């Protein structure tokens, strides 16, 4: 094992050593580089060299070079697929489990970075095969196959995935049958009981979350987390307004209501003969559309074409969203005030945009910043609160909204300098932004990371220290209190978020967010400690923050210090302290990006 201090250094050396070998040869484009790599593989496969590990690694390196030099080209995903295949081949000779893991990693990168690539379904299928037949993890294989069918139901590999899934299911039920026979009577009873329990919870779930009926297996999937019907008011509730944000590949629509309503979502296929696009409609009940809400809101902005609002039945308002495309949707609610949030992911352009090519290497290969930029191109920093919402207020009157904006600006400058990436802040002035709009900004701008900056506050004046959060449900009372304050809602309605999160978290980047939070927390604490005494490390925590719900990228919320603590409030007034805070967070982000890049390239 390397010592902790050595690891970042080794990471850096590794990246630099890559840079030296990464010059693009003149007049060589992605196609030439890829074909050359492939030709080398074909020639190699006919020689006795195939038994030699180092020879394989060289072949794999040819493809890696294509991916690193031309990440925007269509050859990058192809190169990743080839790397995966080569590692699998290598495993055939080496028998090393690590080679299989390397193959899986390449396939994962392909699916994650190039979800629209024609090879994405292949990458999922190959992963599933490794898990099922080589690593003996049929459970994991089944999950991946289901993902393949959900995301790429019409691709050519879907057919194979269905067959493989059926075979895995058959062998699983055979196994469990043979196990059951040998079980004792009491064990059998236990099995029956848990099965019963499972059945009853799933029954609760199906009434609580009304999923649209699956009309055909190829329709996109959505999650709907509505209110339990028993809690509804008897009189129709006014739909007061519709807000929306949209880009090529993402849309968020927020329906503002005067009180709680139930809702359901349904999908209508496009009908080219009638000139109708893909439509998602949301029924709100019991509800009444306000006269101030326009019946038709033309938008024509990226994914979202129009929003239409109508009184469908005396107590039902129907909101129809005309969409360019749709691959996945989520509908959930936030409270105080009550609003229904609709998140839609399109099938549009890939996440990696072709119009932003990698800066040309000037004979010296890729700079460190350029290489890091391969995984993180755009960071959104969110200074908490603003405008009519001052956030927490310190003993002498310092406002959280002022501190967070200062830190966000400092952090923006540091990240631009350290990573050379694009940095966007959600507000650059003292204005009010609803929490759901902040996430929408990050999603519509296609951010790779989202960092929300806040200061903590506690009724106990003595409380002080630093903590970093990512989105998840929690039973920790302190964390609940912090989330309730930041969400500007009562602690009671925080408790009700559990069910929403269960539905919504399915696609959240929980692990990546937790890793980002860990990097930031560690570096922030250690940097502050190198300059200030009495810096308390509260560690990484989880809590249901509105501002993180629905984020499509790793997302965290940093509580930089307690504004309610007299000593920390004094520090938060000093530019020097704020600069140290920004520096600590920036270092954490750089470390996260570097580690991500390492994982991609190892
Ligand atoms: Zn705050």
UniProtKB/TrEMBL annotation:
Q: What's a Pfam family this protein contains? A: AMIN
**The UniProt record lists the keyword Chloroplast:** no
- Top-rank EC class of the record's enzyme: hydrolase
Which CDD domains does the annotation name? MurNAc-LAA
What UniProt keywords apply to this chain's record, in alphabetical order? Hydrolase, Signal
Which GO cellular component term is one of those annotated? outer membrane-bounded periplasmic space
The Low complexity compositionally biased stretches are 200-211
Q: Does the keyword Hydrolase apply?
A: yes
Per the UniProt entry, the Enzyme Commission number(s) are 3.5.1.28
Q: Where is this region: Disordered?
A: 168-220
Superkingdom of the source species: Bacteria
- Which N-terminal residues, if any, form the signal peptide? 1-24
> Boundaries of each MurNAc-LAA domain copy?
439-590
Annotated GO molecular function terms are: N-acetylmuramoyl-L-alanine amidase activity
Output one GO BP term.
peptidoglycan catabolic process
Q: Which reaction does it catalyse?
A: Hydrolyzes the link between N-acetylmuramoyl residues and L-amino acid residues in certain cell-wall glycopeptides
Q: Which residue ranges have biased composition labelled Basic residues?
A: 172-185
Protein name per Swiss-Prot or TrEMBL: N-acetylmuramoyl-L-alanine amidase
What lineage is this protein's organism placed in? Bacteria, Pseudomonadati, Thermodesulfobacteriota, Thermodesulfobacteria, Thermodesulfobacteriales
